[in-house]
Amino acid sequence: MKTHKYFRKLILLTLAVGAFPVLILGWYSYNYSSRTVLEKVNESNAQILRQTQLRVEQTLKTIDYSASQLLNTPLITKAIGTRLTTEDSEMIADLYDSLVGIQTFELGIRDVFLYSMEKDWLISNSGLDDYSYPGMKELLARFAAMQQGSKWASLDLSGRYETGIDPAANKLTILNIKKWPINSLNPQGMLAVVLSAKETNNLIDLEGSEMGRIYIVDEGRIIAHEDSSLIGKDLSQEDFMRRIVQSGEATGVLTSKVADEDMSISYRKSTYNGWVYVSVLPISEMTERAQGIAWTSLWVSIIALGISVAIAVLGTRSVYSPVRSIYRVLSEVRAPREGKDEFGVITEGIESLMSNQSKLQFQLEGQQEYMTELLVRKMLTGEAKSSEIQERLQYYGHTLAWERMRVLLFQIDDLEGSRFDEKDRDLLLFAIGNIVSELVDKQERLAPIVYRDAVVMIVGTQAGSEESFKEKVFRVAVSVQEAVKRYLSIEASVGISRSFDHWTDAALGYEECVSALKYRVQLGREAALFIEDVQPKKSNELQYPKEHAAQLTDAIQSFDAGRAKEALAGFIENVSRSAGNPNDYQLSLVRLFVDVSRLLQDSGISLYELNGKEGSLFEELLHLHAERDIETWFYEQIIEPGIVLLEQRRDTQFRTISEEVKRLIEEAFDTDLTLEKCAARINYHPQYISRVFRQETGINFADYLAQYRLNVAKRWLRDTDMTITDIAEKLKYNNPANFIRYFRKMEGITPGQYRGKPEK
Predict the structure, then answer these.
(1) Where residue 168 falls among pLDDT bands split at 50, 70, 90?
(2) pLDDT (average), residues 205-211
(3) Mind listing the pLDDT tens digit for each residue in 215-250?
(4) Burial class for 469, CB neighbours closer than 10 Å (0-12, 13-18, 19+)
(5) Are 578 and 589 in contact (CB under 8 A)?
(6) Which residues fall within 8 angstroms of residue 607, CB to CB, at 6 or more apart?
(7) pLDDT by residue (tens digit) across 632-643?
(8) Alpha-carbon distances of 653 from 169, 182, 195, 648, 657, rounded to whole Å
(9) By C-alpha distance, which of 198, 306, 307, 209 is closest to 265?
(10) Which runs of consecutive H residues, i.e. helices, occur in 382-465?
């Protein structure tokens, strides 16, 4: 019964071992194939969605460009400031032709409106008519306060503007609205291009992708959809739309319930006008294609499971035969206890025979390992005497006859970016010591120890050349580094001493390892450094790359981050190549740090503004070891934030200069004021003042002064009894005729007509 009992256990175990991989493989195959099908469908829908976006935006940009070209024509510039009457029929006809000219069937433009806010007239491609489009003026005036010069908007114009097409498709109307002048905070006119609702709906692929439906959303409302009855529907409260709005990604795929059905939703956010392009696809339709894969995986798994059962039964009989033989022998020596099966009896017999011997051997080996580690520690500190080292090693069980030896020192490069903190360093060093013990044969090393923030090991060889020993030590070092990286996910460097043949030279070997590791600064992380390869024979004179440093500071002052990054890379490469030892390398880096810091401080930027940690940047630099890390640190911690702060200070200065020039114009508009006089007042060069003023206001100094004087003249004409000649003289016009000519050009009427015009 015991025999049959264990035999049944063995069969069940074999079946479990065989069936588990089959079931896992079938499950994985089905899931992987199904996931691949879903990914392909989503990719296809995303591509169609992208093509739809490109097609729509190409049309919108063409309309936008045509409208901008129209606004920039001299006709519009002249007409905006003119009060149109029946006497201006020629100008009205020209405006009508211009508006009709951009209305093309291919672009789907239905109407074009030009509204003069200053002269209060509205003209469309139907003519000069305020009454056919009630409320259109108020609508356009509402957009005059928008910050941008041009905007695409979707609005419900029912009762305000009739398109004459299907009411279901007229819930929202798409408009391109522009200000004139385009960047003015107080525009004089507005232009609106109205797209046909039907044509707007035709911009998308109404058939969608293979199974999905595509539609366009603006500010939470549908503006284009296959089903025209859904146009204007508010989706802002839908879960998927909230997730799309909250997402920081421009494109993506998500799953959500829509009308109690699981949907795969692809979306693209437009950076051009803020519209969201959405494709909704039922997941149930996508998974139908994976059903065939599921049935195939099931039948293959059943067949494989049957084969596993046959192999388990036949193989178990063969495996069980030696177990039965051993059990019979032990049963004759010692009677088995009740309830024990075959392996229980075998285990009990072996444990009984080996128990005492195993305990004694374990205790002895543990003590020997500990004493060996203590001896190695004394050797590294120079406390052990030559006469006692060999004797104690033999006593601890080491029969070594090494002809040459080396010291290896393993040190963790950096814990930043890993899953460990600084408090875990001691535990990591202990783990590295265990890895070294497992990888290196005991006959070729002494016990590795954790010593001064590193793992130290003495290795040796009995025969062979110096070259072969060096190559062997290198292979050992690399294998340990690879194991540390694989199991602990951290990088470690190793310093290797010169060969020595006396045990007492181990202390000198340790110092050589420490010196070798200093060259990580130039050679990078995870290095295996032999002291004889990296120790310079003579010290080279330090050559500071002044040219690269000058290029770097010039790029910073020019706010050119790309050129600054290239100059920094050239500097680091030059220093790495020319520095004779780590101290020279580090000194050059410190000098560059001081130069860049002085440049920023001369511009009024303190080190504290760069990272909010005053006094810590210099310490961070000294703790960096790898060339790549040093270059990245310099750029991300010093150069890039420094350029940003310099640009911010420049912008603040530009605004201050512009406001000061405006103040001077307000105070001295009735004098012979020139740009040169303003520059002298605020102590800047005239060309610099001109460039800054135009960048901040969008208009040059002379035009701004002329406009300001014109506004003053209008106020005097309206509020005082001053003659036109006196006004022209006070505003520094050469003669009244020039003043009257300029006034008529800008206002469309003479100063006398303006004074006689009744107030609104």
Answers:
(1) very low
(2) 52
(3) 899 888 888 887 777 888 888 888 888 889 888 888
(4) buried
(5) no
(6) 597, 600, 601, 614, 615, 617
(7) 877 777 777 777
(8) 52, 25, 44, 9, 6
(9) 209
(10) 386-395, 425-439
